[in-house]
Amino acid sequence: xxxxxxxxRMRRLAQAIDGEREAAPADVARRLLAVQAQDFAAGCWAxxxxxxxxxxxxxxxxxxxxxxxxxxxxRGTLHxxxxxxxxxxxxxxxxxxxxxxxxxxxxLELESGDFARARDLVxxxxxxGRSIGRAELMELWEDAGxxxxxxxxxxxxxxxxxxxxxxxxxxxxTQQALVLLDEWAPTTRHLEPDEAWGEFLLRYxxxxxxxxxxxxxxxxxxxxxxxxxxxxxxxxxxxTLEVDGVSYLVTAELxxxxxxTPQSRRERDAVELLPAFDEYLLGYQDRRAVLxxxxxxxxxxxxNGVFQPTIVARGRVVGTWRRPAGDGTVDLxxxxxxxxxxxxxxxxxxxxxxxxxx
Length: 358
What we know:
This protein is an alpha+beta fold. It has helices at residues 4-14, 25-32, 40-48, 56-64, 83-99, 102-107, 112-126, 134-143, 152-162, 181-184, 193-208, 213-220, 224-234, 252-260, 265-269, 279-282, 296-299, 340-357, and strands at 35-36, 69-74, 77-81, 166-172, 175-180, 238-243, 246-251, 271-274, 310-313, 316-322, 331-334. It is globular and about 60 Å long. The N and C termini lie far apart (45 Å).
């Protein structure tokens, strides 16, 4: 049996929120394996906040250099991922993702021939290291007689990303351009199915643990059978702990690190300003350890699925924040008044965000 406070400390250590942080955004992507990035700006801050001081320009530089790619490796949600890991992730998630879209493709009158023609056109257009923006790709397909209206274009891109043809790569204007995955990330790891499940679970726990089997299955939109296969592959690399009657998985390395590293006062008093859709909250099916039910409406107003940026203190979500347009100040909206030490820590985090955003 361990305390909830110890559980939250281990999660903060795993996610590089408190304690030792990573040197570069690409290191964060490797550590967490996949970082929520459906909101591009928020995803960039999610990478930077876990480093020793990376700016937005540093994040974009890692994207432009191909050290991080963006795709839909799981749950139909865009994530930043390390390029060498994307293919094996798709290898165990794509079939389930596409099977769930059969009815939608029928509604959109998208057939196998449409996907094949769209693929041939984009491969011809991008071969040789070229890239293309979303709007330009829509125009390319329309000119060739492939309708893209009514979400058809989105589903064509999604299908080609799921099947390993495309990924989002170098920055373009305020977003990213599409590139051929074979050219942008030519080196890849080949993992057998059981080995891939083991790697998936290990990497999830290294960057998100402690967590439950249900958390992992939700995060990957995989299967309980796959999770159990991964657990069997990992053997003694993973152990369990119990908090409030719930059994959590944790890597032996993280458990040892937390036990052997004294908690500093700065770590204990830290207040972090995390972005919208951050992995610290969205990386788990059960979020009660970090967020009280009574405050959920403040994080997702109206239950519309749009998660607000959060203030985190001692591992708990204690409020929301925003940066008003045209104003350099960060507007903190805590659920309850912060203590004097928390206000000072929040001010340091706000300054870190301002340096990032410049």
